[in-house]
């Protein structure tokens, strides 16, 4: 088990679980004994990750889902509960960033897509899973936000806006659900070396500046976010809710 933390008997749902931060969190949860559904649009990525994580104490089940589609989210929750049981841990990790560029170039279509995936999917999954958590008197919601939701990301109006919205939803949910045993927290990573963020870490100028100014002078790794997700999912975090955990190498100190 990871650092003595046990999630034996727990069921987790991780969106965007086929790679990057979602994969790292799923790995940590399954290592601690949770049965985990990983979901995203590309089934082949999910199947490869599930095969890689086979043999851990917890089972890892791949289920394809476009998180921007309500009917697919409803099916995802149904299939998770049918195969593994009631959901104890929800990790809203799926995201997109199609609006990178000048603020005045943002279109209505960009706005709609970013809200659909980065905000509405989390809202819908909470609506689909939390009633059961409240009935059982336990549960943990973990939203993967970003430091872009805490300070403006250059050229990232929509990404910053949607991640800031996710952070505020986290706090509202925590306030409302806490008395009934359901916790809700957010993780705000800095620059992590994933496929999703390669636009930034493959930019030599951007990376050189980051390494020259950030207190921890390097790009983060998905595994460094994974353990934080494990902690927030576990009973060790039973007195923690409504918080935003920044893991950014000190970037927000700048």
Question: Could you please describe the fold and organization of this structure?
Answer:
By secondary structure, the protein is α/β, with parallel strands linked by helices. It has a single domain, classed as Rossmann fold (3-Layer(aba) Sandwich). It contains eight helices and seven strands; from the N terminus they run E-H-E-H-E-H-E-H-E-H-E-H-H-H-E. The protein has helices at 20-31, 43-52, 70-83, 108-136, 157-177, 198-201, 204-213, 222-233; strands spanning 11-15, 35-40, 60-64, 89-92, 139-144, 182-189, 244-247. A seven-stranded parallel sheet has the order 3-2-1-4-5-6-7, sandwiched between helices. Helix 4 packs parallel to helix 5. The model has no long low-confidence stretch (mean pLDDT 96).
């Amino acid at each position: 088990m990871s650092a003595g933390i046990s999630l034996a008997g727990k069921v987790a749902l991780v969106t965007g679980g086929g790679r990057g931060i979602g994969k790292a969190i799923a790995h940590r949860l399954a290592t601690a004994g949770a049965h985990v559904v990983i979901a995203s649009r590309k089934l082949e990525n999910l199947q490869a990750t599930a095969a890689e994580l086979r043999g851990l104490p917890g089972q890892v089940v791949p289920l394809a889902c476009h998180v921007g589609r309500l009917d697919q989210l409803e099916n995802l929750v149904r299939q998770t509960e049918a195969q593994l049981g009631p959901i104890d841990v929800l990790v809203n990790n799926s995201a997109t960033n199609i609006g990178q560029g000048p603020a005045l170039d943002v279109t209505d279509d960009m706005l709609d897509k970013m809200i659909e995936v980065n905000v509405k999917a989390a809202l819908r999954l909470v609506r689909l899973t939390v009633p059961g958590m409240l009935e059982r008197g336990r549960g943990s919601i973990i939203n993967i936000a970003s430091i872009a939701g805490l300070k403006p990301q250059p050229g990232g109006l929509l990404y910053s806006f949607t991640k800031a919205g996710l952070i505020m939803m986290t706090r509202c949910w925590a306030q409302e659900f806490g008395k009934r045993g359901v916790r809700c927290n957010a993780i705000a990573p800095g620059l992590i070396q994933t496929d999703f963020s390669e636009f930034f870490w493959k930019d030599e100028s951007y990376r050189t500046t980051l390494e020259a100014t950030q207190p921890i002078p390097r790009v983060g790794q998905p595994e460094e976010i994974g353990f934080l997700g494990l902690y927030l999912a576990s009973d060790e975090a039973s007195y923690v809710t409504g918080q935003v955990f920044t893991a950014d190498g000190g970037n927000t100190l700048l």
